[in-house]
Amino acid sequence: MRNKTTSFDIAYQAGVSQSTVSRALSGNPLVSKETRARIQAIAKELNYKVDKNASNLRTQTSNTIALLLFEDVTVDDSNINPFFLSMLGSITKACAEAKYDLLVSFQQMNDDWYAEYEDCHKADGLILLGYGDYLTYAQKLAHLIDQKTHFVLWGAGDKSLDAITIRCDNKQGGFAITQHLIEQGRRHIAFIGEASDATPELLERYQGYCQALKDNGLTPNKKLHVDAKITELSGYEATKELLARNEKVDAIFTACDLMAIGAMRAIKDKQLVVGKDIAVVGYDDISVAQFTNPPLTTVRQDTNIAGQLLVKNLIDLIKGNDVSNSIIEPRLMIRQSCGKA
Amino acid sequence: MRNKTTSFDIAYQAGVSQSTVSRALSGNPLVSKETRARIQAIAKELNYKVDKNASNLRTQTSNTIALLLFEDVTVDDSNINPFFLSMLGSITKACAEAKYDLLVSFQQMNDDWYAEYEDCHKADGLILLGYGDYLTYAQKLAHLIDQKTHFVLWGAGDKSLDAITIRCDNKQGGFAITQHLIEQGRRHIAFIGEASDATPELLERYQGYCQALKDNGLTPNKKLHVDAKITELSGYEATKELLARNEKVDAIFTACDLMAIGAMRAIKDKQLVVGKDIAVVGYDDISVAQFTNPPLTTVRQDTNIAGQLLVKNLIDLIKGNDVSNSIIEPRLMIRQSCGKA
DNA sequence: CTGAAAGCGCTTACAG
DNA sequence: CTGAAAGCGCTTACAG
């Protein structure tokens, strides 16, 4: 539609060659000061911007990072986990600071996802957030590695996988919050959430939980463990099932905050008091956690730091710098849902 | 690094010309069935993807939408308003469904923002979310229009501006929630939030508030109006100031939920009971609202619908279809903070 | 310090 | 139905 301004137009007006315009605008030091100034002035006046498709095609880069967000397909059509949304915000900021564009995409677990981006030359690298079944996921990752795609991973990640991971020390987090419950005098602590190889992050939290129990002379009780998906509703249903088992329960560690909110609702439905009859603790520290009733004791995974690290490490990877995995310290956020005043 | 597969490689293997490969893969109906099938098989085997930089350069399109998110620069470095985050989630989904890529960007209010995207041929159109001072913003918009940039706007937008806007009926929302407070027996209803031409959305909510008061024989009282920024902290401070004025206050309508959370905190600090001594209502229905203590009565702006409309209208605009403004119905979410049990 | 020219990988008239 | 060729708008060796 509109007549596009190109570097040739600028060159014509400035009375120089198009090559010189390109050099002047890209900051090539060979160009003389006056020439550069003149060209910049004209470019500004004509509202000229370098065509990224052309320059990217030429240089075979994109200055773009793609964020691939996987939500478990079993999850309903509702909202994205606020934890990821918060991460998304932090990643957006970090990309802006690093002068990279951010392409955001939701993915289902189809066969093609790993190829969609870098191979399209739309992104120089990938940030991967979330996954359905980790076992399936790991295979896709292996494929990405085969293709020498640049990517970094949040959360999961395994020793056998040669991929850069930024993760929370989930075992430590699970240990610390369970230890805290025990110190509050709780002895019959349930765990809600899937703890299997398909969900390594939750599994690690579970392992931390078991460790804390054992260190305190307590034995993990299978009957106090109920699987659940990463949703409020699933946490609610799992807790209902738990409470129907007629086992003694005085605390529940839910593997994430979303489930914890559901757990609290299930407890209230039973006319029990959260924090008194049953302590509830979660994981993530989503923004809602401080406003639940009672406010939720949980483990914070700092999304600001995580986002910055994901972006920084990915850019280092793209640039060929040395990069290593990063571990984020979990941080206990003691509020009232665990019985502490 | 890796040897990139191009359409010439496919052509060579298939024993056809590169043109035919391009046609086959782009769905051009001229290509014969067998040829197409053969080419597709080879492309899949070689994991070939069309280079978007090249095809976009050639066709002068991008199949990409850019989301520009403006946060008021006066806002601290904290988190993005969850309302926008939720919108971002919904827009991401809608773009994925429409097969558009989404480029996300945070913007400060610098001179160049309007030119950054479409002119770079990285995006076919823009979605604009948030703004600092609307008056400054409107000038930039005028410039965008001059440049015939395709864009849609959330929230604000004025009759004089020839831009497609998707917005909530803020006046109606402000009216309805104020009316509700009055029906609950509240008579001394304060308004917290800036209500000026610089913040048209909030101004409309304020106008709805005034209208409801007048319709019920009440007079808006200047002393019950305190300006505030769109943050929890600012809502907290504005409410402290309000309560220090020693005017009778039995309800507060804060112009957004973030402020409402701050307002509730300020009320509690004064040893007053939210929902009893002072009713509090907000606007937006961010996900936190249902978990505050007490749960916050507010006006929902449906971000799912909003995101879908923004994307749909923008795509129509890009395609040259007729597009008109959309108005989203505000929806009262009655919870306990307004005194209703 | 500057210019002429090649080429990044596609799409699409044009010719057959 | 298919191929040869031009060209999208840049960047960057190469030559001066």
From TrEMBL, chains A, B:
SMART domains xref list? HTH_LACI
What CDD domains does the record tag this protein with? HTH_LacI, PBP1_CelR
Q: The organism sits in which domain of life?
A: Bacteria
- Which UniProt keyword terms apply here? DNA-binding, Transcription, Transcription regulation
Q: Name one Pfam family in it.
A: LacI
Q: Which InterPro entries does its entry note? A: HTH_LacI, LacI/GalR-like_sensor, Lambda_DNA-bd_dom_sf, Peripla_BP_I
Q: Write out the GO MF terms.
A: DNA-binding transcription factor activity; transcription cis-regulatory region binding
Which residue intervals define the domain HTH lacI-type in the entry?
Answer: 5-59
**Per the database entry, which stretches of residues form a coiled coil?**
none
Name used for this protein in its record: LacI family transcriptional regulator
Which species does the entry assign this protein to? Psychrosphaera saromensis
